[in-house]
Description:
By secondary structure, the chain is an alpha/beta fold. It contains 25 helices and 23 strands.
Amino acid sequence: MTENVDFSNFSLLDLFSMEVKTQVALMNDYLLALEKKPQPTEELAALMRSAHSIKGAARIVQVNPVVNLAHALEDYFTGIKAGKISINPGGIDVCLQTLDLFLVIADACVGNPDTPISAAIEDQSRSLTTQITQLLNPEVNQSHTTIVSAVLEERTTNPQPPVKPEPPTEALPVATPTTVAAVHPSPEETATNQHHLMRVGKDVLHQLMALAGESLVESKRLESITDSFVQLKMAQIELSGLLEKLEGRLKPQHLDRAIDNLVTQARQQASECQRLLSDRQNQLELFYQHSAHFAHRLYQQVVTTQMCPFEEKGQRLPRIVRDLARQLKKKVNLQIIGKSTLVDRDILEHLETPLVHILRNALDHGIESPQERLAVGKPETGLISIEVYHRAGKLFITVSDDGRGIEPEFLRQEIVKKKLTNWEMVAQLSEAELMEFLFLPGFTTAEVVTEFSGRGVGLDIVYSTVREFGGTLRAVSHPGQGMTFHLQLPLTLSVIRTLLVEIAGEPYAFSLTRIEQVVMLSKSDIQVSENQPFFLLENQPVRLVLAHQVLELATPTVQKDIIKVVVISDRLNHYGLVVDRFLGERSLVIRPLDPRLGKIPNISAAAILDDGSPVLIFDVEDLLISTAKVFSSGQISQVHHSAQPAVNKISQRVLVVDDSLTVREMERKLLENHGYQVEVAVNGMDAWNMIRSGNYQLVVTDIDMPRMNGFELTREIKTDQQLKHIPVIIVSYKDRQEDRLQGLQAGADYYLTKSSFHDDTLLEAVIDLIGEV
């Protein structure tokens, strides 16, 4: 397995860090296998190769502590292979601690011009080297015990001024990129992994995903064109029928020969057009089918590049389980089913911590001690199983153990003891409802707080992470037999299933996984308490608020008898957002917002609809916070009252010029939400043509655009006798003084940066120049 990577910009220490991390990942797996296999010949050979590779790389960059440790490891593995010493858990502990130190040193090397070896690292290295040397003596090895490292999740160091080691005493080979790429897979890996890997940046993947999504949109546009061809064909058939009727009505004996010839020619021409139209329609339909199929294949392939096997990020889990079980003096095997199941990289990066919390709970609370297990007829070694699989377009991860589980009655007592509800209510709860309390912040069933669990934060973190990705979490207990956690997540974050709604004439999208319910109410369903409107949903009050008010948009002037509501929840509160219309469900390809725009309130991303128009996707967590602020202010619009008729206002036409779709739409919506009539242009030349043929009161333009930039456009406007009265606002990412001066010298009335989207600066500038609407 190789990586086609350009190493020309990497320093030797960067290359060394990559080499160490690659080899340590392999050695971790092989070390864990040593304890379980009676004759681990292949594993020992691989461990010796990896230790030798690390030693050679460390010599090149003069990291002597790693040279010494790797050499000691190599001797240790050689001794085991030769039968001079035996494998025992204490020896494996020392080896794993050594690998942890390798990773600490590797992390410290990244971006460092000098070898970053602190005094603390030197001391720890010498201690571990001594311990490994002692392991080589069978007599010492039998009595030797080691302390398992308590650091299971994060490896941190106390930064010290680097101490440069002594130079090597022997001739060294020159490091090459292929040294870093060298990997020694097992025979099984060699048989199954014959493909090459290429490292691609996340930004590039997101761009590819956006382009693939656009290709899907473009292919769907052909469908409307083919439909129009069908309508044209029907019209052509009707025309041919009319010509035939006309020819039948006209008596040949009363016709002039010239007219007769014209009618005949018209009928023949109509027939030829009909034949040609049918032929082109068939070709277009065939092209549309091929284009749609190709676009779909392209999109699926790009989605695949965003995925990686679960084992790529789950390789630390066996080590964590092994170390924690040793500390708790329990015997546990971890079984991972579906290691090769593909998972979205962004999801997988955030799943490790939640999975570690579930494993900690299973080990500390679920799995019994060997004595307890034998007493109840269970094998002394417990089993924790992680299963990863796809089903119905979703990712499922199931984590189960064969421990003690949780008794429902015990859980009821804990719920009442913590005063979360009363006995009357808790007695009516089903087991599934009882399990939901496990995910509340601060809730725990542990009697004693330990360093591993008992603080009530682990499962809350799991729940929050799963919800953040639009997934669901469910716990099932089998008292005396074990516990199971079911995580359901989207297969990819690149595409989401959404509900489209219309608010103030614009489409917005809710992720379906974040919607509790969609309801349609009559005005009689709405009640008011303390001047706050609400309705009852399954006997629970849901407070109502206009989505316009939360988003600070113009309040609708006409309200219909049927009110459309989207219910969202943060587990503690339920809110009903009143929208103008439901536009149906749609799968959307997510397009991240330009990071230079910063965080847009209540918005997480954007997408393109089938017709090419943009739509903003709600950030429901942000939306919940904004909704809570509206209610806390006490200024709630009464959704059941008719709004006052709108006052006629003077229309002000504004031209927004920007080659970025996202920026264009953000500026357009900002101004339209405050009553301005806005048109857009994609570059300076298009804008110049529109200005000369239109009647605009204001131009808002970017600088860097094709065909004509913002400075040139401003100069054209300000030097034209008919147009120079039109004020111009330049909005640019550039915040340098020379750019500001150049913009003002060109004649711009305002020069603003695009951070103005997050305050009222842009709007205040518009009002200052052309007034409010």
